[in-house]
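Schema walk-through. Below, the input block comes first and the output block second. Nothing else is stored per chain. Lengths vary across the set, and this one has 213 residues.
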Amino acid sequence: MRAVRVLVRHELRMLVSLVLWAGRRTHGTGDGGRAFGYARGQGAVMFGFGFVCVVETLTMSVLLRDYPTVHRVWLALDLYTILFVVGLHAANVVRPHVLDAGSLRIRRAVHVDLRVPLEKIADVRRELRASHERAEGELDLAVGAQTSVTLELTEPVSHLTFLGRRRHVHLVRFHAEDADGLVRAVRQARTALSPGNPGSPGRPGRPVPDLPA
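--- output ---
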């Protein structure tokens, strides 16, 4: 029953993403957060997959025209597949990573939504990786088979998998179109939170320098 609820929630979020995409709006960026997109890296792949689905739908419609019942069932499945592909791309576009005053929200479509408090970030750096080995405590969110940002944490944070299983991760790799800009913005936000930042009220001292790249 839990799996059914998860799947229904997933499909509803996909439909909401389609509405937001059609209205040129984004999700979770209305409170002053800074958005960093990641969908461009797989746009061509999604378009190609969608095109293949359309061709397959037309082909099967011709082959099954003499079997109306089977044709209707197959057509419904094909149309749903096309809707799913478009909805997945829409979710990637309208649900970007978001940096606000206290946390970095790392997302991938409607599957992953991980909030990392800035004070738990030990290191953030631009690191292009095209291969990832599954390891305990690490979360890899590749887009177009690559990640471009690596985030090391001072302590683990909780991540819920697609089916609701809780994992504790201490290292996150993900992709951002403006990886350099995201790394720079996170470092600046962490510096602003530092007790030694002279710009913080009642907190004298020197600003914390950027971490090494």
